[in-house]
Automatic annotation (TrEMBL), chains A, B, C, D:
SUPFAM superfamilies the record matches: Xylose isomerase-like
InterPro entries on file: L-rhamnose_isomerase, Xyl_isomerase-like_sf
Keywords in alphabetical order: Isomerase, Manganese, Metal-binding
The protein's name in its UniProt record: TIM barrel protein
UniProt key word Metal-binding: yes
Organism encoding this protein: Pontibacter silvestris
Manganese listed as a keyword: yes
Length: 424, 424, 424, 424
């Protein structure tokens, strides 16, 4: 299924008058709305190929319908999102769930939807049917060199796929760790992992980056070998200038101050990218902004401040990606909600009176500091986000149009009621 | 110091045009704005007498200036807040920090400021200079009946003060618990506490309530004898119809779902009141809404739904109070920010399309459920809250006027630079 | 495979001299060792049928070998454990994973291994292939009465199986809850769940119990409908005298004081049973005692104190069960370690000088309280636990014998290398 | 008060027979007991001068009796502890609470008690009466250079005191941070702090170390400027070879894996020392080993493994110190319990079959790994710890002798009932 341009235009025309009224009232009380709009237009969020189907927990999975059955259909899905919001212009593949057969055809298909290929992702946390060695006791950290070697080679293979597709970054996430005290020697695990990562690093093209993702805990784990930003940063520093830390919002201990971590990683020049989602208790992989929207805003405030301090281009310097699991919502609707929440938080952060804030900080006027942040956060920026979409030909209200066009019903007609996407 | 009415009117006149423009745009897209406005007008938040001075941690306290030196000056302070926002029409006293000498004069003074006396608070977590028995090892839970008796009598004395002042509720917070495994027998501690509370309960006037506040943890504690809502509810049920649970937002284990607790306590008819504040890690007693404004909104959503389901009057059925500590902000400014955040969350909750939400829930349309909540939360309701203030003669922007009128400077002139309020 | 009695005797004979030496030194410095030994002999821990195969996380599962392929083989597995330690004399079945075809044969097989049938477990957190309605949006709490009805009927069917097998309790665990704010109305969810549980309760035989298990969080959840002991106790109280709360050690928010919860539930006469395991971060389902052995001891200290205060028989008044997942260990070895840790904690708790403790508590001699608890905990009670085994014909060192007899290798020979047990 | 040597000898003689019996049984089943004993004899734990009086929380403080009124009496107190256990041979001073007037006399007094001076501690988290600038908004991080300068100079003054006393390390703990989002810019706070630390570092003698202590949270804080080991390590690396990270057991987010952090810091050559205590919820400063003794053992296991891997001397390479608050126990008794718990954990870690563990790890025999650790932990090593004391002339049971000699009663006679030690 594809969404014809005229349908979006028709939809927008019906809504435009009301939209313009709200936008103009808002714009009239803000400075530099055009600058904000341009930044919103440029900002693109990568969609992970594994988030297009219904996810599950370790207990149950309740599948959806009309899910993509192939890499081609996954690209089609992201294309639908991008057509609706013009903010989802990239797809992030996961090997081996998305091994392309014909690179040229795949690239052409993606280009047709206006999509580029974001960071490619390796998988050494599951055993594949034809796999020689098992990752039961870890991959890059494993005590057995042969298993580490297999994991390294898999990563190198992933890089090769990425090169063919025009990607320029590799994301490594390890569920390596231990379930029990004594199971591994933390130092050896770190050193083995470092050695493995160095071998992968050596295979990176010059213009590539590698993202070392950290995670504080997993069910059934007692320790994680890349467990926090401190460990990830240690790896990134030991690896070299192409290595960066990747922050996933759900991968922290309770109450962690993520906005501070982000600020420090930017200060060190080692923040590589983001996995957006939200959580109540652990790594819940819920819709971004659905639980803690103010935290999301504060993170974007750290990002904007930190990127500007280093003269980094917002749209291209970091890898922006969603990493969520959709268990009780339609995956495409869920992704539309996530992208909207990200754009809102970004727009609010762009509206922060940075100069006023610096002044208030300089005077330790804590009340004013809070007023300035809340002024931005309490502003209803949805008309600005919508206006950015309008200017790029996207829908003023993507989710509403998704439903009006009966996109999922169409996909079910095309693909069937009982399809299960590859992936988690 | 008192704020003359004309100063507020002058201030409002300057702002009114801009305010009206924003309010009208907003009102035109909402239903039942008048109903919402009336509810906001009626809603009053109690100010605790101990929050009018600068607080501290166990490490340091960095005092402020112009703090109230007496109960009279505390009432004056709350009067200033209420003049500015007309939403702080009650004061909650803490005995023995605020023992009134002349009830009649104190009542007259409060009335002059338009204030009533909220729940009175007892203190059995500190030893007073003239106290016979020590609370070092607990008060209502103590193994020694004589010490329990002293704590009970103190509470009864607090009730007597409250009766004289026209209060109609007693809040009991116990830092009773233990620092080490084995220090106490949990069952005996519960039973002793229950016996003590029963004796206090017996002394309650017929039209009074007693609030049993719970708290999950304190620095240097291993167990708390009223540690969670389950324990508080057990006490409240065993005590009788005048006993209720009081929820303090900072008194929970990490990640606790407070909005669910609130909903269930309302279901059981046992929610008595609220202590508003905010926190990042523990019982941080920070400005309400400064860390997790969406959680605050969700709690109000539970409150509105639950109170309406039982036909409870929003303004009078529950005891609404701030309980915060102001360490790096001017206490009065901090309280103005807290009240504003509470009014915003309440207004947003009132705007939730409850019927639409019920429909979406009935269909398990989770995407729509989220849209409905976020629609309300993302709306910039500040013009509505300001309009409610305008209609009651309060300031459109209380904090701004507080600063323009140089209230603190005036108080310093009156009271001196180095004053320390009694209390925490 | 079955372990012949003489093999155990041979093994014990080799070890007996050293064992006796240690036991006697220890026994000579303790009071009432015989009483402790008898309690240890009587204490039996149920083994869940789903813990006999290798578990997994939502990411990967790395299967083991020689896993039981049928209910008969599961009983055989528990029989092996029981032969080795004589402390695992019960099996807890999970429907529909273990639907017995021939009750009489199954009961005979169990009896042959000296096993009885513990609480039966229902499953409404997964959809079964032939199931009419889906539990995607909950089961007992569902907004749709038809789905609630299906869940109720499933539970009643589970009771019927249990009656046939001689079980006398039903454990209900619900992963009912919500993933997002607004998805459900907490009050309605509670009320629907209560109604469903009441229908199940009505179907309970007179001498049965129903255990309402609570859980604070699940990955991908925002709220749990039976989320803490307070909620579970509300249900149990509303249901009636046959309803009890079941405590699973991994089902709490971070830092929860479980030993206090246990004490209060016993005080209320509403503690029904236990699911033993251990955890570092969340519901990790690790080997009991592998992470926090002192907490396990403190829990048993609460249990011993609380059961004795009510004159409850330790062995029969509560349902004792392991609930763990074995991802990187041989499941049978893991269970042997769990049972050993439980027996050690129980023995230590039995050694606590309860009278001395009460005296120290009465004097608020906190130092002495701690000394008394630590005296028991620091004692190496393994010789006592071993002696209890020796007297019942079990192995002095079950795990060592398990390895010496090459039990797993034998099971692989019998069952094959690539077997996957039904269950999680 | 001083404890005459003969009193200890008399006490030991009464207990020696029973002790020897237990020690010999234990020693006969262990390897290399003599090596372990020597390590225990050499191991000394510093006592902080501020832990000799009764502490408090932000709510109340319930003072003890006979507390030291001067630095001299604090040294006397530590001398008493050291006489009893010969494991507390160092005192750690806190400036300005313990400013020595006469260095020579103080050094002579300490030497008389067999004590050396451990790391000196600076205090920039409280304002002193005569202080020019306030630390209300931070010290080393402050936006105002003058305030940073004052904090730096205070630290340099502390170094000067330390030099005079023969100390060779400075511990810096900052309660710098913020209470509200927006209050500070994380990057600027880090950079200001770094600049301040660099100025302090420049004043360090060549053979000194500086320890940068981190802490995840404080009541009333939203961010901490040295909030986790990653940040502390960043500072230590940027400062240079004399800078190290200091780990305080209570300064972590819930569930943090401290034993892994310790292992990685040792790997990086940047672990400087330890503040021992224990906690249930936050920074509770409870008696070491009173809540999570297995975690303490696992930490010592990481320490022994990590120090041995680098050929570090256990006794002298790291700064070992208690940092606790004694609110409901006699401070000296509490410290005796802490030292005992530390020695037990250290002895257990020394008993771990390191070679066997490495072998099991190499084979991923997770069951055996756990058995090996638990074998050491479950061993009752108290006779070994007591034997080490016997050999150094300390008491077999320090706490018992403390009570039998009525040490506190004597101190009350000497110092009075109502003394309050300087410090927290």
């Amino acid at each position: 299924m594809q969404i014809e341009k005229y349908k979006i235009d028709d939809f927008n025309q019906q809504q435009e008058q009301e939209h313009k009224r709200k936008f103009e009232v808002l714009a009239s009380s803000l400075n530099n709305v055009e600058g904000v709009l341009q930044k919103l237009v440029d900002f693109q969020i990568g969609i992970p190929s594994w988030a297009l189907g219904t996810g599950g927990t370790r207990f149950g999975r309740f599948s959806g319908s009309g899910e993509p059955r192939s890499l081609e259909e996954k690209i089609e899905d992201v294309g639908l999102l991008h057509a609706l919001n013009q903010s989802s212009g990239a797809i992030s593949l996961h090997i081996p769930w998305d091994i392309p057969q014909d690179y040229k055809a795949i690239k052409a298909l993606a280009a047709q939807h206006g999509l580029k290929f974001d960071a490619v992702n390796s998988n050494t946390f599951q055993d594949q049917p034809d796999q020689k060695q098992s990752y039961k006791f870890g991959s890059m950290q494993h005590v057995d060199k042969a298993i580490r070697r297999q994991a390294v080679e898999h990563n190198i293979e992933v890089i090769r796929h990425g090169i063919e597709l025009g990607s320029d970054a590799l994301t490594v996430w390890l569920s390596d760790g231990s379930s029990f005290p004594g199971q591994l020697n933390f130092r050896n695990a770190f050193e083995n992992t470092l050695e493995s990562l160095q071998e992968v690093y050596a295979a990176l093209p010059d213009d590539w980056k590698v993202f070392v993702e950290y995670k504080a805990f997993e069910p059934n784990f007692y320790s994680m070998t890349v467990g926090d930003w401190g460990q990830s940063l240690l790896f990134a520093n030991k690896l070299g200038p192409k290595a960066y830390t990747l922050v996933d919002l759900g991968h922290h201990l309770p109450n962690a101050n993520i906005e501070q971590i982000v600020s420090l990683l930017l200060m060190e020049g080692k923040l590589g990218g983001f996995h957006f989602n939200d959580s109540k208790y652990g790594d819940d992989d819920l819709t971004t902004g659905s639980i803690k929207p103010y935290q999301l805003f504060l993170i974007f405030n750290s990002l904007v401040d930190g990127m500007d301090a280093r003269g980094m281009d917002h749209a291209t310097s970091l890898a922006w990606m969603i990493d969520a699991s959709h268990n009780v919502k339609d995956p495409l609707e869920d992704l539309l909600q996530s992208v909207e929440a990200i754009m809102i938080a970004y727009a609010q952060a762009l509206l922060v009176d940075q100069q006023g804030l610096k002044g208030a900080q300089q005077e330790n006027d804590v009340v004013r500091c809070q007023e300035i942040l809340q002024e931005a956060f309490r502003t209803d920026v949805r008309p600005i986000v919508a206006e950015a979409r309008l200017r790029t030909g996207a829908a003023l209200r993507p989710l509403q149009l998704f439903r009006e066009l009966k996109v999922r019903e169409n996909l079910i007609n095309e693909r069937g009621l009982k399809t299960v996407a590859t992936g988690l």
